[in-house]
From TrEMBL, chain A:
Family classification: Belongs to the binding-protein-dependent transport system permease family. FecCD subfamily.
Entry keywords, A to Z: Cell membrane, Membrane, Transmembrane, Transmembrane helix, Transport
Organism of origin: Frischella japonica
Pfam families: FecCD
Protein name stated in the entry: Iron chelate uptake ABC transporter family permease subunit
UniProtKB/TrEMBL annotation, chain B:
InterPro entries, per database record: AAA+_ATPase (IPR003593), ABC_transporter-like_ATP-bd (IPR003439), P-loop_NTPase (IPR027417), Siderophore_ABC-ATPase (IPR051535)
Protein name as annotated: ATP-binding cassette domain-containing protein
Annotated PROSITE patterns: ABC_TRANSPORTER_2
Subcellular locations according to the entry: Cell membrane
Keyword DNA-binding: no
A GO molecular function held by the record: ATP binding
Entry keywords, A to Z: ATP-binding, Cell membrane, Ion transport, Iron, Iron transport, Membrane, Nucleotide-binding, Transport
Domain ABC transporter: 2-236
Keyword Endoplasmic reticulum belongs to the record: no
Membrane topology according to the record: Peripheral membrane protein
From TrEMBL, chain C:
Top-rank taxon: Bacteria
Keyword Transmembrane in record: yes
Source taxonomy: Bacteria, Pseudomonadati, Pseudomonadota, Gammaproteobacteria, Orbales
Pfam families given in the database record: FecCD
Key words, A-Z: Cell membrane, Membrane, Transmembrane, Transmembrane helix, Transport
Species name: Frischella japonica
Subcellular location per the Swiss-Prot or TrEMBL entry: Cell membrane
Main location: membrane
Entries under Gene3D superfamilies matching the protein: ABC transporter involved in vitamin B12 uptake, BtuC
Name of the protein: Iron chelate uptake ABC transporter family permease subunit
């Protein structure tokens, strides 16, 4: 039964991926790839990279969200609700200000990830100041921290007249610019996801608290640092390559947990597959809805994500009542 | 006189009040007693129109509490609940001044100031009148709230656990003041009260509730009986007469 | 902290609420005078006219932010929730965006058309917000944290929905998006300003007549009913008035998330009284001071006149986190 579920999930995702390869402005079909050199070029340079990027970003962000939820012991948190993503954006903007144009994507990634780490650390520090941690105060504080950091970013962008490129770049969440040679960094994110899967149990133990972790002989601090680094790197890379993708890291782990419980080692594969599927689906909707124009995946994700998040919250309210 | 007729109240599937019918006489102190969850506070809130009953009616000296305009009722009856949380930072005097709102709509006259001072002195709050509520102890605050409803100068005063937060000295003082308000000012006071010995020694009339129903009512002599209290509270009770007062012993 | 408290009690003695209002009013007037007279340049008439439009816009927005937040917090009996944080502004933007679908093409600039359009959109906002927030408060049983979280998310949902709709309408337009996301104080037209001024004066008078009622409502539901108020009716009319005010401000400049939260909480601290006849003018004047002073600083200090709403977002967010930390 278990492997059957997994099999079905993989099958559905494969179906979506293949469909994604043949959706877009140009009419790429199986026969035109074989016959037409230009179509073959589009297919290899644009469609394949785009689909791979979608799969990698979607699954990595969902897993990053899951890890964040485990480490903060709060279901309603994810990188874009903890100031992490916004901090990565700020880092990226600073690179654009300090070293325009010439700087390599690798440097951008380092900066973005470093700021993501700092932003998350700031968030954790603020959380420590809240003594009575109600489950909802944590995401509320995170959202506000995020908007404060965004305000800094936007202000700087205005000052240096970079607002338009900032908008397109950071708040785009747009896969239409993905081409061969501009997305390969995302493979690193894939590796990080695999790594997370490998050390999943450590995160679970760390989430039980410092005392518990020490008791079973786990270096709590080390695991926390490791988890936060994975989150920061993932967020930083994704924002450099595709931009902001809100809510994925929140809704996917929550939906999976509702269906399958909280044994992380068991659920991570499903979190990956569903996250990839959701982002892929949003991007495909964006590609077909007003052809020949495109709507960024993040715009659609913003609507769908907010609705699902609301559903999760109200469902929780239903529990709280009784 | 308060006429309570077939009052029913449910939350979801739980019955809170089950067909309550009774009459509370005019004048004196009436105490409502009963175990936790008996529906005492709910009944008091419905009499004070803070809650709506599912069915049934309540008349307070001829006025139906649901259909009568709220501002007219506010001159007939006042109600104080247990929890009184709000954000405004008020002094004791300002709070008590709100008791005059039904008459003045917020514009206080010299006559109102007189009433406010009376209420303050009635509850021994004159020295605290300029202090802010958040600077007071729980007991002082409780007295300030009671002063406010007394300042409202209504014939009927409903109080939910007025002895909450009060130590022995202040609890006795509060009950004495309420007795005074009933005897000298002719008020009808209805209390929800946990301490049955206070109920016994200060009330003229007692209503006993259990599981949403009215199970006994009468003067202290009729309620302060071992078999009756045992039935109400599900716990062994002995009754002793001390200085002419009936006292329940249930501690051990 | 102790010395601050001491300072406050000291000033309380000398500064009666009336004197405070005069003080804030004087500061606001002085700032207005500076705003109108600094660096006038050659084209005097044009510049004065343009600045008076901006100034009037700021006065209207300050009025809405201060007044609507204070009365909203009074009836919802807390100091964190605000109309903006509940997503009402973004709901109005969404309604405006959807409305574009229906009269696309009819680019009618006739003022009566604009007013009818505004009236329809505002009625829709009032209707939706009443339904939505009544449902919300009923569903979640007055758990303030949950209401706040759902409010923020609803705002996010409305924002991203209008974002999506605008992309659908005009896939290439960046300027529209930007205009909707950041509030701008420079785009209001004279007829819209005049119309808004009339609306807020009327609503202001209604609220001013109820200033003593709001003092009682601030005590909470049970006390308000005990003192003879028709609580339900007052809450509903307040939500109605708040929705109209928010619609006016959002139509003029766009969403401003934190201004109301900041000035309302500062007003509780600085009005020197809990009474709404002092709180309401204080909140209004403080909002005006914040807006004009901020604009002056940004325009002449940093030469960035367009960034006021972003700066407000920055300070507002920090202020909000401070409020949350203080509460726990």
């Amino acid at each position: 039964m278990k492997s059957f579920n997994l099999f079905i999930s993989i099958l559905v995702l494969t179906g979506l991926s293949v469909t994604s390869l043949f959706i877009g402005v140009s009419d790429v079909t199986l026969s035109s790839i074989l016959s037409d050199a230009e179509m073959r070029y589009i297919f290899i340079v644009s469609r394949v990279p785009r689909t791979i990027a979608l799969l990698l970003a979607g699954s990595a962000l969902s897993v990053a969200g899951l890890i964040m939820q485990i480490l903060t012991q709060n279901r309603f948190i994810e990188p874009s609700i903890a100031g992490t993503t916004q901090s990565a954006g700020l880092g990226l903007l600073l690179v654009m200000i300090l070293a325009p144009a010439t700087v390599s994507i690798f440097v951008k990634m380092i900066f973005a990830s470093l700021f993501a780490l700092l932003g998350t650390a700031l968030f954790m520090l603020i959380l420590r100041k809240i003594i009575l941690k109600s489950a909802l105060i944590v995401p509320i504080v995170g959202i506000m921290l995020g908007s404060v950091i965004s305000a800094i970013t936007v202000f700087l962008a205005m000052y240096f007249d970079l607002l338009q490129s900032l908008w397109a770049w950071i708040y785009g969440g747009d896969f239409s610019g993905i081409l061969q040679g501009r997305y390969e960094l995302l493979w690193l994110v894939g590796l990080l996801t695999l790594f997370s899967y490998w050390v999943a149990d450590n995160f679970t133990v760390a989430s039980m608290g410092r005392e518990f972790a020490i008791n079973v002989g786990l270096n709590h601090r080390k695991v926390m640092t490791m988890g936060l680094s994975v989150i920061a790197l993932t967020t930083g890379i994704v924002i450099v390559v595709v931009g902001l993708l809100p809510f994925v890291g929140l809704i996917i782990p929550n939906l999976i947990s509702l269906k399958m419980g909280d044994n992380i080692r068991k659920t991570i594969p499903y979190v990956c597959l569903s996250g990839a599927g959701l982002v892929l689906l949003c991007d495909m909707i964006g590609r077909v809805i007003i052809r020949p124009y495109e709507i960024p995946a993040s715009t659609i994700l913003g609507v769908i994500g907010a609705i699902i998040f609301l559903y999760l919250l109200i469902k929780q309210a239903g529990y709280a009542k009784h | 006189m308060i006429v309570i007729d077939k009052i029913k109240k449910c939350y979801d599937d739980t019955v809170i009040l089950d067909n309550i019918t009774t009459t509370i006489p005019r004048g004196g102190i009436t105490s409502i007693i009963g175990p936790n969850g008996a529906g005492k506070s709910t009944l008091l809130s419905i009499i004070g129109r803070l809650l709506k009953a599912d069915t049934g009616t309540i008349n307070v000296s001829g006025l139906d509490v649901v259909t009568t305009k709220s501002d007219i009722l506010a001159k007939q009856l006042s109600i104080l609940r247990q929890e009184n949380q709000f954000n405004s930072r008020l002094t004791v005097e300002e709070l008590v001044g709100f008791g005059r709102y039904p008459y003045t709509r917020g514009r206080l006259t010299a006559q109102d100031d007189e009433k406010i001072s009376q209420s303050l002195s009635f509850l021994n709050l004159l020295e605290l009148r300029h202090r802010y509520l958040d600077e007071l102890s729980g007991g002082q605050r409780q007295r300030a709230y009671v002063a406010m409803v007394l300042c409202q100068d209504t014939d009927y005063v409903l109080l939910d656990e007025p002895l909450n937060n009060l130590d022995m000295k202040h609890a006795v003082a509060m009950m004495k003041q309420l007795r005074l308000a009933a005897d000298d000012l002719g008020k009808t006071i209805i209390l929800v009260i946990h301490d049955i010995n206070f109920a016994s020694t200060y009330s003229d009339y007692i209503l006993a509730m259990k599981k949403g129903a009215l199970c006994y009512q009468g003067g202290p002599k009729e309620i302060m009986r071992a078999d009756v209290l045992q039935d109400i509270f599900d716990t062994p009770v002995r009754i002793r007469e001390i200085d002419g007062q009936l006292i329940a012993m249930y501690f051990r | 902290m102790q010395s601050i408290k001491h300072f406050i009690t000291l000033t309380e003695r000398y500064l009666t609420p009336n004197r405070r209002i005069m003080l804030y009013g004087a500061v606001a007037l002085a700032l207005m005078a500076i705003f109108m007279s600094v660096k006038l340049g050659n084209n005097l008439q044009y510049i004065l006219l343009r600045r008076s439009y901006i100034l009037l816009t700021m006065v209207i927005v300050a009025f809405v932010a201060g007044i609507s937040t204070v009365i909203f917090q009074t009836v919802s009996n807390n100091r964190i929730l605000t109309p903006s944080l509940m997503g009402i502004e973004n709901l109005f933007v969404l309604i405006q965006t959807v409305a574009i679908f229906f009269y696309s093409g009819t680019t009618n600039s006739f003022w009566l058309f604009n007013i009818i359009k505004f009236a329809i959109e505002t009625s829709l906002l009032v209707l939706f917000s009443l339904l939505l927030y009544q449902w919300l408060f009923k569903t979640v049983n007055y758990n303030i944290n949950l209401v706040l979280m759902i409010g923020i998310l609803l705002g996010e949902l409305f924002r991203s929905s209008s974002n999506l709709l605008q992309r659908l309408l005009d896939p290439n337009e960046f300027a529209i998006l930007q205009g909707r996301i950041f509030a701008t104080f420079t785009r209001a037209t004279p007829d819209l300003i005049a119309f808004s001024a009339i609306v807020i004066i009327l609503i202001g008078l209604l609220i001013w007549r109820k200033r003593y009622v709001y003092d009682v409502l601030a005590l909470g539901r049970a006390h308000a009913i005990n003192l003879g108020l028709n609580y339900q009716r007052h809450v509903m009319t307040t939500l109605l008035l708040v929705s109209i005010l928010v619609a006016v401000s959002t139509a003029l400049v766009g969403p401003l998330t934190f201004l109301g939260l900041m000035v309302a909480n500062l007003a509780y601290l600085l009005a020197g009284s809990h009474q709404h006849r002092y709180l309401l003018p204080t909140a209004f004047l403080l909002a005006m001071i914040a807006l004009i002073a901020g604009q002056l600083f940004l325009e002449y200090g940093l030469n960035m006149s367009a960034s006021l709403s972003v700066v407000l977002e920055f300070f507002g967010g920090i202020f909000f986190i401070y409020l949350i930390l203080k509460r726990f």
